[in-house]
Design goal:
Strand order of the largest sheet: 1-2
Low-confidence stretches: none
Shape: globular
Number of domains: 1
Number of strands: 2
Mean pLDDT: 90
Length: 100
């Protein structure tokens, strides 16, 4: 179920219109799902979705989730989707980029 939710999330994120009105909290919930997939050892089951998601990220120099962790494996906690728009992008500007 977690794997299907992550894969579906990535597919929906590719469609810019479906993410325009997301809250940043909704986005972060999906990042927590990816975190759980890692914790239960199923990274190999989401390789294709991860490749798509990773290719969509920009500003990967900014870690906005689990900032206290000094790790490299959790690429999903960095940056934001390059096609973010609308209210979702406003939320990213405020909470990820920390712009006012």
């Amino acid at each position: 179920m977690l794997i299907a939710r992550w894969t579906d999330f990535v597919a929906r994120l590719e469609d810019q219109e479906s993410s325009r009105n997301w809250l940043i909290d909704d986005y972060w919930i999906f990042l927590e799902i990816r975190e759980l997939i890692h914790e239960i050892g199923h990274d190999a089951d989401v390789i294709q979705a991860d490749e798509i998601f990773r290719s969509m990220l920009v500003r990967t120099d900014i870690k906005h989730r689990h900032k206290d962790r000094k790790s490299e494996y959790d690429f999903w906690n960095y940056g934001y989707p390059k096609n973010a728009s609308g209210f979702f992008f406003q939320q990213i500007r405020l909470h990820v980029l920390q712009e006012s």
